[in-house]
Write a structure and sequence with these properties.
The structure is a single chain. The protein is about 40% helix and about 10% strand. It is of the alpha/beta class and about 375 residues long. The protein has 2 domains: about 240 residues, Aspartate Aminotransferase, domain 2, CATH 3.40.640; about 120 residues, Aspartate Aminotransferase, domain 1. It starts with 7 loop residues before the first helix and ends with a helix. Bound molecules: pyridoxal-5'-phosphate. Pyridoxal-5'-phosphate binds next to helix 3 and helix 4. Pyridoxal-5'-phosphate (PLP) binds next to helix 3 and helix 4.
């Protein structure tokens, strides 16, 4: 039995009959740029997340970049974030000439540690602290970072809070949904995210009207009126085609999320029943509703060998992320070195993502656990 890490064709078959008329309508209209499909999705997303405003953009990466541009991040400004995340989180900061300041993760949740965040701010020389503008907590794998202490630190230090919610649409933290806790919420519709388009796409949510207005301008080259530019933006538009697909998918999202959460519970039960909890660490649900964009286990000492074994048996897995960002060659000028962020470096060595997509069958989950059991039997 081959079990892929992700199989999008199963979801497509489920919604094909709803998608086809919607796409045909768009093709007949030949109106591909912004317009009603994008406005409709923005309204749906704002309602879904509980945000005042939502602005459709070209990708999750651009959602981060635009949020930073909206608050006028300048060269030399500092932005705090985690080194254990997808590259785009820090890439967006760096592209504006600003400096990512990394803060290690909490080993249980793999999200930014509020304790270390406080220590990092505390230890900064006053001259650098002056340049501190924002913090980007990442809701990694589908679980919100521990936002309350982060919001306190941000308020005390006048920092804007930009949530990287690319993996966490629908996740909850103390009654609020991801993306509505800070000043900006950044979402990705990359096909492998919990709400995936048929290509690239993203969304920024905010509660602040002035931010919404500026996001609208920056998305179309910084012109409030056509051909009159008050600032320099870019082409950061969400395609109407993607918006149409996502509008059909969004009403299904909560059901799909329940599927992911059920799978996570089943994995936990099966790993426990197999007596494997001494060998592997399960995801820890600590800050609220986890939406399991990824189901990531820890296998100290055996990660790479287990991954090879699973690959041989036809089971898809992935390593998110093998190289923490402070050790990326392109960030060498920031001076990061091994040992700087031990928890991120350990996570990079120990973590492995298993299949968790909603349409996975119970027998497939049993098979994944059986094969992992088999691997450990003689070790
Ligand atoms: C996917 C992802 C992004 C980037 O989203 P794209 O749509 O691929 O540009 C940013 N941050 C995190 C944490 C992600 O998982």
């Amino acid at each position: 039995m081959k079990i892929p890490l992700l199989d999008l064709t199963r979801q497509y078959r489920q919604i094909r009959d709803k998608l086809t008329p919607k796409l045909t309508e768009l093709f007949e209209s030949q109106q591909f740029i912004l317009g009603r499909p994008v406005q409709e999705l923005e309204a749906q997303m704002a309602a879904y997340c509980g945000a005042s405003y939502a602005v459709g953009v070209s990708s999750g990466t651009d959602a981060l970049l635009l949020s930073l541009m909206t608050i006028d991040i300048h060269p030399g400004d500092r932005v705090l974030t985690s080194p254990y995340t997808f590259f785009a989180t820090a890439g967006a900061i760096y592209r504006l000439g600003a400096v990512p300041v990394f803060v290690d993760i909490d080993p249980d949740t793999c999200t930014i540690s509020p304790v270390k965040l406080a220590e990092t701010i505390q230890a900064m020389p006053q001259t650098i602290k002056h340049r501190l503008r924002a913090v980007i907590p990442v809701h990694l794998y589908g679980q919100c970072a521990d936002m309350e202490p982060i919001l306190h630190l941000a308020a005390d230090n006048h920092l804007v809070v930009i949530e990287d919610a690319a993996q966490a649409i629908g996740a909850e933290y103390r009654g609020k949904r991801a993306g509505t806790i800070g000043d900006f919420g950044c979402f990705s519709f990359f096909p492998s995210k919990n709400l995936g388009g048929f290509g690239d796409g993203g969304m920024v949510t905010t509660q602040t009207e002035a931010y919404r207005d500026k996001l609208h301008r920056l998305r179309v080259h910084g012109g409030a009126e056509r051909y009159r530019h008050t600032e320099v933006g870019g082409n950061f538009r969400l395609d109407a085609l993607q918006a149409a697909v996502l509008s059909v998918k969004l009403p299904h999202l909560d059901g799909w999320t329940e599927g992911r959460r059920n799978h996570a519970r089943m994995y936990a039960r099966l790993f426990r029943d197999a007596g494997l909890l001494e060998r592997i660490g399960l995801p820890v649900e600590r800050t609220g509703k986890h939406v399991y964009n990824q189901f990531v286990i820890r296998i100290p000492g055996h990660r790479d060998a287990l991954q090879r074994y699973l690959t041989e048996k036809g089971i898809g897995t992935a390593i998110y992320y093998p190289i923490p960002l402070h050790l990326q060659p392109c960030f060498a000028d920031l001076g990061g070195k091994p040992g700087d962020f031990p928890e991120s470096e350990r996570a990079a060595q120990e973590t492995l993502a298993l299949p968790i997509f909603p349409e996975l069958e119970p027998q497939e989950i049993e098979r994944v656990v059986d094969v992992i059991h088999e691997y450990f039997r003689n070790r």
